[in-house]
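Below is a filled-in request sheet from our internal design queue. Each sheet records the structural input a requester submitted and the sequence that came back. We keep these sheets so that new team members can see what a complete request looks like end to end.

REQUESTER: design group, bay 2
PRIORITY: normal
MODE: inverse folding
CHAIN LENGTH: 274
BACKBONE (tokenized):
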């Protein structure tokens, strides 16, 4: 499979509109973007493509990157930066399958699949398919498994994506704290490529109203606030998952400029073949 990172930023992206911080200025100078999160997975064996999350930057991403429109989508959770690009499906698709978790979120009283159906009930070109966590399903010739992660107060799912023919495996943490349940860790383990939420470096936790959590033995916080991993948390998780290769994604413009474009922080347009 061929992986294209369409969107590697957090919810405001980099550069952030109206922001003149050094990181945003450097990104503008160098023509680098971290748009809102989305990953394109092309399965050349069957000639189909799967889109992971529907970025609000969908149109810009598909005009910028040379990738075909998807044959199906998977949605990790209902936050704006992962779902609100779905409206772009209007008049672009005849019938687009959208896959999402079907278990009820106690916070909203409905599942991710229900919320998508409700929010986009005017879009008759999409069909939402419900899936139980940990139960693999097939789409675009790939085996996809949704696994619960920790992104309070909403449910959110990481993704394991495997090619049953070649054994290649892509894992995504989804938006999550460091507190990923063990059963989900087992499903995400041993990927050829891991895409891990690393919104800010641990040093910035002091600026969060509730600070950092899930400290390591040296006192470094692996969670920023409650919802996302720090860079250090994401790298530690990658170690525990035994990832062959790791790219850090869902990155905020708050990274200091001298750290913001260092390895293994991803930028839009990166491509990997697994
Ligand atoms: Zn900025
Ligand atoms: Zn989120
Ligand atoms: Zn997000």
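RETURNED SEQUENCE:
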């Amino acid at each position: 499979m061929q992986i294209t990172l369409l969107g590697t930023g957090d919810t405001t992206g980099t550069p952030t509109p109206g922001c003149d911080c050094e990181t945003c200025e450097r990104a503008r100078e160098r023509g680098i973007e971290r748009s809102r999160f989305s990953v394109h997975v092309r399965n050349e064996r069957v000639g189909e493509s799967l889109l992971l999350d529907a970025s609000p930057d969908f149109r810009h991403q598909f005009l910028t990157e040379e990738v075909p429109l998807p044959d199906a989508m998977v949605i990790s959770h209902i936050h704006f930066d992962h779902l609100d690009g779905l409206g772009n499906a209007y008049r672009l698709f005849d019938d687009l399958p959208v896959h999402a978790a079907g278990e009820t979120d106690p916070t909203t009283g409905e599942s991710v699949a229900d919320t998508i159906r409700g929010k986009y009930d005017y879009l008759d070109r999409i069909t939402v398919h419900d899936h139980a966590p940990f139960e693999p399903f097939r789409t675009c010739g790939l085996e996809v498994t949704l696994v619960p992660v920790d992104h309070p107060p909403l449910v959110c799912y990481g993704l394991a994506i495997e090619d049953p023919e070649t054994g290649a495996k892509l894992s995504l943490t989804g938006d999550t704290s460091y507190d990923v349940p063990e059963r989900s860790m087992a499903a995400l383990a041993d990927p050829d490529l891991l895409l891990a939420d690393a919104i800010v470096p641990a040093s910035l936790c002091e600026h969060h109203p509730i600070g950092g959590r899930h400290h390591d033995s040296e006192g470094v916080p692996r969670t920023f606030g409650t919802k996302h991993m720090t860079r250090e948390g994401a790298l530690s998780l990658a170690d525990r998952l035994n990832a062959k290769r790791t790219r850090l994604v869902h990155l905020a413009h708050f990274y200091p400029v001298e750290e913001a474009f260092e390895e293994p922080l991803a930028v839009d347009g990166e491509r990997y073949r697994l």
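SHEET NOTES:
- The first strand starts at residue 2 and ends at 7.
- Residues 11, 37, 79, 81-82, 175, 250 surround zinc ion (ligand 3) (CB under 6 Å).
FILED BY: M.R.
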